Amino acid sequence: MAQAHHGHHDHERTRPGHRHHGHGHTDVDWAVMAPMLEAQAELFAPLYGNVMAWLGEKAPDPGLIVDAGSGPGVISCLFAEVFPGARVAAVDGSEPLLERARDRAARLGLADRLATITGELPGVLDELEYPAGLLWAGNSLHHLGDQRAALAAFAERLAPGGTLALLEGGLPARFLPRDIGIGRPGLQARLDVMQEDWFARMRAELPGSVAETEDWPALLAAAGLKHTGTRSFLLDLPAPVSDPARAYVAADLNRLREFVGSDLGDEDRATLDRLLDPGDEASVHRRNDLFVLKAHTVHTAVRTA
């Protein structure tokens, strides 16, 4: 099993409007974001359940599942529940997040099957005591400077016949109609452009950053793995949404406001401020047309030797 560490650090990830970033333009304070990361993962549980059903067909009986970049462990615990015969190692650079993962596992009666390892990917995977039958990297690879080298390191930690599952890409989340009745139509599309610019800066500022064409099947093949599938999974929460979904949207847009607000035009900034004001009838806290629509794409590959 993986060595169990107590008290360390973590990640989870994605884009500024996606639950993972701290102050400054591109640094991330994962501990501060922990409640948001947990709430988002819980909201996305139906999507992840579909992902795991698909992975179960490709890796039906993994002895060890490694969640590389586990964050607060919501997905790690889902793996433990869906694969009752497996042990799960939640691996992250943030001890506060891994502490939450251990607490969650204890609440769910999974503590005996979930261990945590604190340290930076991919080197910390050297602490695994035996190879993984399934290694999951959910929006964590793009936080590593040299993604090609990291994939090779992930591949080395797989048992023969083991599967690497890489969640990267998909489609940006949509929460609102194109015309929301205030401001200029198309706000979310303009925010998408700013998020892409933010993401490019984040990537460029990572230690050892290497520009890479994001052809994930080709990169998996370059790591010595056989690509076995790519599939996208949809979270579709139509209006009117639940209170947790509303809270997720508000947190996501607030994070965007922090990160790209200074780059917004006056009209878009005023619109975003109204969307975030609980006292405004046009806000996401009150709107009846609020929804959540998001696609995640997962690529799988197997170690054949």
Task: Describe this structure as you would to a colleague.
It is a single chain. With 305 residues, this protein is an alpha/beta fold. It is built from 9 helices and 7 strands. A 7-stranded mixed sheet has the order 3-2-1-4-5-7-6, with helices on both faces. Helix 4 (95-107) links the parallel strand 2 (87-92) and strand 3 (114-118). Helix 1 packs antiparallel against helix 8 (243-260), helix 2 packs across helix 3 and helix 8 (243-260) packs antiparallel against helix 9 (266-276). The longest helix is centred in the middle third of the chain and has 19 residues, at 187-205. The chain is globular.
What is the topology?
Elements: H1 30-43, H2 45-58, E1 64-68, H3 74-82, E2 87-92, H4 95-107, E3 114-118, E4 132-138, H5 147-156, E5 158-174, H6 187-205, H7 216-222, E6 226-237, H8 243-260, H9 266-276, E7 292-302
Parallel strand pairs: 1-2, 1-4, 2-3, 4-5
Antiparallel strand pairs: 5-7, 6-7
Helix pairs in contact: 1-8, 2-3, 8-9
Put simply, the count of helices is 9
Radius of gyration: 19 Å
* Widest beta sheet: strand line-up: 3-2-1-4-5-7-6
* SSE series: HHEHEHEEHEHHEHHE
Percentage of residues in strands? 15-25%
Question: Regions with pLDDT < 50 over 5+ consecutive residues?
Answer: 1-26
- Percent helix range: 25-40%
Using the alpha-carbon principal axes, give the shape. globular
| Class derived from helix and strand content | alpha/beta
